[in-house]
Each structure stands twice: as C-alpha cells, then as structure tokens.
Amino acid sequence: MNIDLIKEHIGDVLKETNLKGLGEKKVGKVRDIYVSPDKITLVSTDRHSSFDRIIAFVPFKGEVLNLISAFWFENTKDIIQNHVVSIPDPAVLVAKVCKPLPIEAIVRGYITGVTSTSLWTHYKDGKRDFGNFVLPEGMHKNQQLPEPVFTPSTKFEEHDRTLSPQEIVAEGLMKKELIEEVEKVAIELFKRGQEIAYTKGLILVDTKYEFGLDENGKLTLIDEIHTPDSSRYWKANTYQERFDQDLEPEYFDKEFLRLWFKENCDPYNDKVLPEAPPELVAELSRRYIEIYETITGKAFDHDFSQGIVERIENNLKK
Ligand SMILES: Nc1ncnc2c1ncn2[C@@H]1O[C@H](COP(=O)(O)OP(=O)(O)O)[C@@H](O)[C@H]1O
Ligand SMILES: [Mg+2]
User: Fold this and answer.
1) 119 and 229 inside one domain
2) Residue ranges in the chain assigned as alpha helix (H)
C-alpha cells in the first residue's frame, strides 16, 4: 500500500471496541479481550503503546499484527498446539481459553539490546553465567549466539524479572518438568521461525512467547507469535557486512516515533501527550504493512468498503 493511501486513512483506526455477546471485556495494551466460558476473542486494535501508555493509533496495525500471528501459528502447529480456533476477521482471533503460565518465554538468537534487561547490557557489565547457559569471552554487540538461549521473565508482576529456569522452579512459580518442556518447545519454535524468516530475507533475532494450559492441562501456545511487536527482526542480506564494520543492523524500526515523543514531551510524566505527527504515524503504518508482506509473501489487502467496527460486527455475525 502506498503512503498517500495510508495518509488518506490516517484517522480510520480501531481505537477500542465494545462488542456485545462475546463475554466479559478486558483491555490489554494493544488488544481488547472478550472472555466467555468456552472461548476467548482477541481483537487487535490499532493502538500503539510505548512508555507503558498509548502513544498513537496506527492505521492497519491491528490487522497486520493479527495476520502475521496467524501465519506463524499455522506454520508452527506441528511443533506445539496453539490456541487458534478461528480468524473470523483480519483483526480478530477466536481462541481456546487457557490458563496462562506465569512467565514470558523469551528466546534470543543474537546478543543485543540496550535496555537494562537485554542480554548485551548484562554481558557488557561482565556477566557470563546465566544459570542455564554460559557465554564465551570476546563477544561483540549484535553477534550471533552459538545456540539460541532461553531467558524467561516473570509475568503478572509490576516489574518483569529475568529468572533462570532453576530460579523459576526454586521460587515455586512452575514445576521443573513444565519449565523444561516450555524451554524445549520455545527453542524449537524459535529455530523454525529463524528458518522461515531467513527464506524471506529476514533474521529473527529474538522473541517472546506466552504459553498456557488448555482444559486438559496440555501445554498450548497462546497470545501472539513472531509479530514485530513481540520479536526483533533484522535484514539478513546486510547483516554480516554491517556487523563487520561495527554498524547497527538494518531492522524493522519503530524507534523513531518513540524518539519524537522523548524530544517533544515527557512521555513518562505528562498527563496528556501531544498528538503524534501524521507523517510519522503513516510511515510506521507503511513499515508494518511492509513487514507483513515480507513475512507472509502476500499483498496486504484492506476492505475499504465498510468501517472497521462495522466490518468486525458483520464478520462475527457470520
Ligand atoms: N488463549 C488465551 N487464554 C488466556 N489469555 C490469553 C490467551 N491469549 C492471550 N491471552 C492474554 O491476553 C492478553 C493480550 O492482550 P495484550 O494487548 O497483548 O495485553 P498486554 O497488555 O497484557 O500485553 C495478554 O494478557 C495475554 O496473556
Ligand atoms: Mg501483549
């Protein structure tokens, strides 16, 4: 989709939903979740979150994220069963109700990042032994790890903590057998993701999975998978050359919008945020669509004939 068409539709965004008959509504950062006894309906909105708040509404983003997830669920279902029941609308996923495990299953294929929880930050500060793996001396930022590593963190806590699987067991968060199964499955999913991403010219750098237990207590992949919100992607063809020259990899970059807020207000403290410049929002939308098309190999198609809420209601009625 070209940028002018996106700009024309900059205001046609799904901000929130109030759908009837789907059960109790819970509001996530990005998704509206309707829980009924037999199913859970996840509606991906166009909300864009950063600094733990909504900073913009990005046209088509909800559809793009939901459909990227759908692609990956389909392409990994031989590894682990997932929560997908159906996708009645581009922005909607009907899923099995599962009991979420209290961790985020993070897998990393490269040593990178700048935040306090990132692997590179720990390594740079001298850490080598991470409990379930030890890293060699002399690694450089953005270097590929000898093997993907599993660095789970807590969920449902105010501040996520990175814990080794041993610590998760010691704290009584999960049983040993279960966290070991999660680790094995997460690594396998990640390797599949890397393989497929590579054929599309992308490196899957790191990602976060969420798992739950279904009604029979069976491990199930829930939430989203390998979306640009839950994962980091770099461009494969320029990676090595740039790494050799100490340059940052080319990547799916949404940082520019965060930077604008940092430069134009105090996003951590201001009660009300300024409105994001439409040109930047349109550019972000363009990038989301581009990565959707790169990953799935399909042209992004949006139904312009009806409003988004109207479309969702019509599709759910069917
Ligand atoms: N199959 C499922 N069963 C129960 N909860 C789920 C399932 N799939 C996803 N979830 C939960 O739904 C929420 C998704 O909404 P999201 O906007 O990502 O919220 P958050 O702000 O918590 O990241 C997450 O809290 C996730 O754990
Ligand atoms: Mg989430």
Assistant:
1) yes
2) 3-8, 61-74, 119-124, 165-170, 176-199, 239-244, 255-264, 278-296, 308-317
Q: Which residue's alpha carbon is nearest to atom 16 within ligand 1?
A: 28
Query: So what's the pLDDT on residue 117?
Result: 87
All residue ranges of the chain with pLDDT < 70 are none
Residue 81: the pLDDT is 98
Which numbered atom of ligand 1 lies nearest the CA of 31? 17
User: CATH no. for residue 131?
Assistant: 3.30.470.20
Regarding whether 91 and 49 lie in a shared domain, the answer is: yes
CA of 289 to the centre of ligand 1 (A): 23
Q: Which atom of ligand 1 is nearest to the CA of 30?
A: 17
Do both 62 and 153 map to the same domain? no
CA 237 – CA 201 distance, rounded (Å): 7
Task: List pocket residues of ligand 1, CB cut-off 6 Å.
Answer: 28-31, 33, 40, 83, 95-98, 100, 210, 212, 222-223
* Predicted model pTM: 0.96
Q: Are residues 128 and 39 in the same domain?
A: no
Ligand 2 centre to CA of 106 (Å) is: 13
Considering every ligand atom, which ligand is closest to the CA of 31? 1
Question: What pLDDT was estimated at residue 160?
Answer: 87
Shared domain for 206 and 279, answered yes or no, is no
The residue whose CA is least distant from atom 10 of ligand 1 is 223
- My answer on whether 116 and 187 are in the same domain is yes
* Cα distances (Å, whole numbers) of residue 70 to 36, 83, 215, 297: 21, 11, 22, 13
Q: Which domain holds residue 201?
A: 99-244
pLDDT value, residue 28: 95
Residue-level length of the chain? 318
Is there a single domain that holds both residue 177 and residue 280? Answer: no
If one residue of 31, 73, 224 were mutated to test the ligand 1 pocket, choosing by the most ligand atoms within 8 A of its CB, it would be 31
Domain limit, last residue, from 184, 219, 244: 244
CA dihedral 40, 45, 49, 55 (to 10 degrees): -150
| 51 and 73 housed in the same domain | yes
